[in-house]
Specification:
Number of helices: 10
Number of strands: 2
Helix content: 55-70%
Shape: flat
Distance between the termini: 60 Å
Order of helices and strands: HHHHHHHHHHEE
Structural class: mainly alpha
Largest sheet: 2 strands, antiparallel
């Protein structure tokens, strides 16, 4: 009986995380919103002195993330494989940082990696393309912005963990990250030691790469995702009549927007 109940519970949880019903789709959108609220909470509370109210919310967020993490393990057909993913370890760090703040509250910032993982999920992508014409028209730009934002905020969390007289809150850490990313390097805030310099180098190299990727997405011609029935080419100009790879006639849905 216990095995049957466990299987039934796993099936219900799996339908929530993988199903296509309106309730399952709404649940995943709610998780996406929760990730955003979590990041805003971490940023906002970095400017405040520790208090019992903040600690209570820390425990609440930690418990909710733990519940989500446990549910994902339960629903996954190969749960052990999840531990080979960066997002899984990011969730574990976030859980510890919320439930045991002394372990490093900056780790909660890694929660944003879960948001990126959800946006990369095939079912979530398909749903966003179906529900939002804005997303369909600007998918490449949205992902370029998301990748850059995730990198900035994760690196900001790592910089914040250095906690010295120059970095008092997330705003200071974000300021350093952006000045390093743009290679402006005012020098008024620095990370001490060899590790600090290596982190600065990582921010500059990968940050500039992601920034140029965003610029490319903004300046390149707008394309739509529509698989060619002959060769399978996925992206075409929005007004394309023929596939530029094989010449096949395309019937790209047009919403009549200029």
């Amino acid at each position: 009986m216990a095995a049957v109940n466990h299987t039934s519970l796993r099936s219900r949880v799996r339908r929530l995380y993988e199903g296509t019903t309106p309730s399952a789709v709404g649940f995943r959108y709610a998780l996406l919103a929760f990730d955003v609220v979590t990041i805003l909470f971490i940023i906002g509370t970095s400017f405040l002195h520790p208090s019992e109210i903040i600690e209570t919310f820390d425990l609440l967020f930690g418990a909710m993330i733990l519940a989500d993490f446990s549910a994902r393990l339960l629903a996954d057909r190969h749960p052990l494989r999840k531990f080979g993913r960066l997002s899984t370890w990011a969730d574990m760090v976030a859980i510890v940082s919320f439930l045991a703040p002394l372990a490093g509250e900056a780790g909660g910032f890694l929660r944003i990696l879960r948001t990126l993982g959800m946006l990369r999920d095939y079912q979530m992508l398909a749903r966003l393309r179906m529900d939002s014409s804005f997303f369909r028209r600007n998918e490449e730009v949205i992902f370029a912005v998301t990748n850059l934002a995730v990198f900035i905020f994760v690196m900001t969390g790592i910089v914040y963990a250095f906690r010295n007289d120059q970095i008092r809150n997330y705003a200071d850490a974000l300021y350093f990250t952006v000045t390093a990313l743009t290679t402006t390097g005012f020098g008024d805030i620095t990370l001490p030691g060899t590790i600090g310099r290596l982190i600065t180098v990582v921010i500059m190299i990968f940050g500039v790469t992601l920034f140029f990727n965003l610029a490319r997405a903004l300046l390149s011609p707008n394309k739509v995702r529509f698989p060619c029935p002959t060769c399978g080419l996925q992206r075409h100009e929005s007004d394309a009549v023929h596939c530029k790879a094989c010449g096949a006639v395309l019937n790209i849905p047009d919403e009549g927007l200029a």
